[in-house]
Fold:
Amino acid sequence: MSETTTALVTGANKGIGYEIAAGLGSLGYRVGVGARDATRRETAVGKLRAAGVDAFGVPLDVTDDQSVTEATELIERLAGRLDALVNNAGISGEMDPGWVQDPTVLDLEVLRAVVDTNVMGVVRVTNAMLPMLRRSASPRIVNVSSSVGSLTRQADPDIEIGPVMAAYAPSKSFLNALTVQYARQFADTNILINAACPGLVATDFTGFHGPRTPEQGATTAIRLATLPDGGPTGSFFEDDGVVPW
Structure:
């Protein structure tokens, strides 16, 4: 088994996911670049390697059981264990003009697709990778969430939280709640699991609107993926500290 610390970042071929991979790689991690699209995945791996990162591609569709199984087998062969898992892959779902998802006319197929990726995908990948994570001396799991998943902020009329997003925002609330349940289950283990909010980042996900760069959006996830033993678990963080549930 390799002594090199190994991380898997899902949805790592671009945007925040790519920068999380780059950041972990700069800290000495060997990084699995999880992505569905083969061309984009290998392009990202090439860029990371050119920057000095020990990166390898992981074909991975988080909504497909067989794909997740094959990704697990690949990492098993290459590394034998996993030290950090960053569940970054996510979708917003179809939006109306103005980035609105009106709950009164919400297409249930859109809701299913968003939950399948943003919530069930996290469960698929996390549970598949757990045996390898348990072999690590300091396993870390990070679920990339969003402040729009904060019920406290969503319910406060004095906080500007953006448009109504009846599929995407609740999927992140679901992910946050799931993070807490995993933390409770891991309470007597060395696994630390937390949720990270990257802030409003200018990527293709947001139509390149937002005050933050992908590099800035990656910082909290990188910090949580590299927490020291005894660090926090079952919490929700952004750069400025804890995000209210």
